Amino acid sequence: MPKTFDVRITTFDAELEFSVEKKCTGKELFDLIVRTLGVRETWYFGLQYVDKKGVVSWLKFNKRVLDQDITKEDPVNLSFRVKFYPEDVAEELMQEITQHLFFLQVKEAILNMDIFCPPEASVLLASYAVQAKYGDYDKEFHKPGFLANDLLLPQRVIDQYQMTADMWEERITSWYAEHKEMRRDEAEMEYLKIAQDLEMYGVMYFEIKNRKGTDLWLGIDAHGLNIYERENKLNPKISFPWNETRNISFHDKRIKPVDKSSPDFIFHALKLRVNKVILDLCVGNHELHIRRRKPDTMEIQQMRSLAREDKMRRQIERDKLMKEKQTREEIMKQRDELEKKLLEFQEEASRVKEALSPTQSLLEDWCFTSSSNAVDGEEIKSEEMGELLAEKARVAEEEAILLGKKASDAEEEIKRLRLCLSKQSGDERIAIERRAREAGEERFKRVLQEAEARKREALILREDLMKSRQAERLAKQKLVEITSSPELFSRYSDPREIIADIDRSVNQLMDGDVNQISREHERERNGSIQQQLQDLKTQMEGLKISDRQTRWDYIHDENMRRGEDKYSTLQKIQTETSTARVQFFEEL
């Protein structure tokens, strides 16, 4: 029986416990975890732990778990965390579980104030978090105070404004109500798309020194290496993108990203252990940067296809649910209308009954009076009643005789008509034939009109067919010209490859059109969001407590006044040559 040890894996919303062999490597344990969680985009994640010296480190895959510098507890505690970030979450993250794990980690970092987030953006992000948790807003169900137990805003933001919990909830709910019909995965993706534009998103910071001994921050992210002044983690002073970095090496506490066209860029970490973590993150981000710029592997293509199918399936299910919901709402509306009409009828009946009450009383009084005089007039009424009945009997007898005569006349007329029809000739026959001919001509006109319509349709179809055949001939001619080219056959050894390449080209063109439309829609949406954020900031400005603003708040506000953001800052500081940037780093 092999010896085992227990390990506890913590995610942001679950805990997993395993019993594994003592010779288990980091890769074997990691594979076991991702299979359990259902994660296929494994390259973004790692197993994090705090080593014996208190340094946050990542488990190495090529070594045994127990041979690494982890605290030997029972069970061994490790955290399943995002280790590397994509350049664009919407383009790169495919699986829903991957998006969910990213969402949980980024949300935690914002709430813990590890990522700076301005107040107005914090409110917007909170509204998406509420949508992801509670689904569509329903004013009948989501009463005031329903967010009282949820941590949705960084404490720094709450402390900076003279606003009660109810006021914050009102601001968040007003945005939340606008996210109706948004699924959980869509709300989480919208959260990430906004969060990735924050200056500190996806950046891992390390304390370093340059050759002069100046204390600086090194920031490592999906775009490259950034150098920050110690008092400012928002605006990098220098940036070295990954496409300028050919190799990375370290010696003792020095790390040197190697670029043959520039002098060595060397910085010193405070601890050797930290140096190893920095090197690990640099190598991993650099590899992902290169891989993003290569064609997708078959595995990635399959994952993208499955993700599209899954998204389409969820969309169909949502449309079906929305249709059922709409049908139920219509039925409920009709029921309410019927109940309303029934109530109106009942009220009308009550009013009529009330209006008839005096009349009924008078009638009862009259009946009572009549009954008292009935005995006196009984003989007179008997004589009058007899005369009335005799008169009615006489009239009925006359009507019966008259009806009998009319029936007899009608029967004789029918016999006469039948005899005439059997012996018709001359003018009568001509008149009948004329009426028949007129009826036939009318029918012939209708048939002729229908035939003309069918003829016009046939002409249109024939023209479409000719155009289609002409296009087919041109396509075949073009294909012959292409396939007869020696260049083509130097590139393809199998005709099926040509067809596959043509299909790919067509798909790329179609995808390009779709992506262009998507980008235009995204720009319009982003512009609308930015305007709403600005409006919210203006509304909250009067409630701000000035002396509670942090250095980062002032830096962010200054960036906004200058019209700068995360991407424009990076673009600006990368305009200098690598040599000039290295020299600037040494002078900091």
Structure description:
With 588 residues, the chain is α+β, with helices and mostly antiparallel strands. 61% of the residues lie in helices and 11% in strands. The chain contains 16 helices and twelve strands. The protein has helices at residues 26-37, 89-92, 96-111, 119-134, 155-159, 165-176, 184-195, 272-292, 298-373, 378-422, 427-483, 486-491, 495-541, 551-561, 566-573, 578-587; strands spanning 4-10, 15-21, 45-50, 56-58, 76-82, 204-209, 215-220, 224-229, 238-241, 247-251, 254-258, 267-269. Strands 9-8-7-6-12-11-10 form a seven-stranded antiparallel β-sheet, with helices on one face. A hairpin with a 3-residue loop joins β7 and β8. α3 (96-111) packs across α7 and α4 (119-134) packs across α6. The longest helix has 76 residues, at 298-373. Mean pLDDT is 79; it is low at 378-382 and 485-515. It comes from Acropora cervicornis (Staghorn coral). Keywords: Cell membrane, Coiled coil, Membrane. Pfam families: ERM_C (PF00769), FERM_C (PF09380), FERM_M (PF00373), FERM_N (PF09379). It is found in: Cell membrane. One of its GO terms (molecular function) is actin binding.
Attribute tags:
about 600 residues, alpha+beta, 7-stranded antiparallel sheet, membrane
Helices and strands in order:
Layout: E1 4-10, E2 15-21, H1 26-37, E3 45-50, E4 56-58, E5 76-82, H2 89-92, H3 96-111, H4 119-134, H5 155-159, H6 165-176, H7 184-195, E6 204-209, E7 215-220, E8 224-229, E9 238-241, E10 247-251, E11 254-258, E12 267-269, H8 272-292, H9 298-373, H10 378-422, H11 427-483, H12 486-491, H13 495-541, H14 551-561, H15 566-573, H16 578-587
Parallel strand pairs: 1-5
Antiparallel strand pairs: 1-2, 3-4, 3-5, 6-7, 6-12, 7-8, 8-9, 10-11, 11-12
Helix pairs in contact: 3-7, 4-6, 4-7, 4-13
GO molecular function: actin binding
Domain FERM: 5-293
Subcellular location: Cell membrane
